[in-house]
Specification:
Layout (H helix, E strand, L loop, with lengths): L1 H40 L4 H30 L2 E2 L2 E2 L1
Antiparallel strand pairs: 1-2
Helix pairs in contact: 1-2
Length: 84
Amino acid sequence: MLLLEARLQNGLAVMLLLLYTLGITIADVTIDAEVAKQSREKPGLATDFQTLCSISSSVGSFFGFSTSGFIVRIMGPKVGNNEF
């Protein structure tokens, strides 16, 4: 019975990770399409658009990873009801 519960939890975790990745991918493709459109309309600013997107992504990743690291440090890693 415990093995079945572990498999269901693992399956749910994989499903949630796939949905998360899909959401990130859709947002990234949408941003890239808008940058391409703006670059066609204003060719002189094409490199600036790309730079702005890269810097924004890097800053967002830094704050996101820093926040998650801080929270894991405070709460500790947990899986289900078990603590490591």
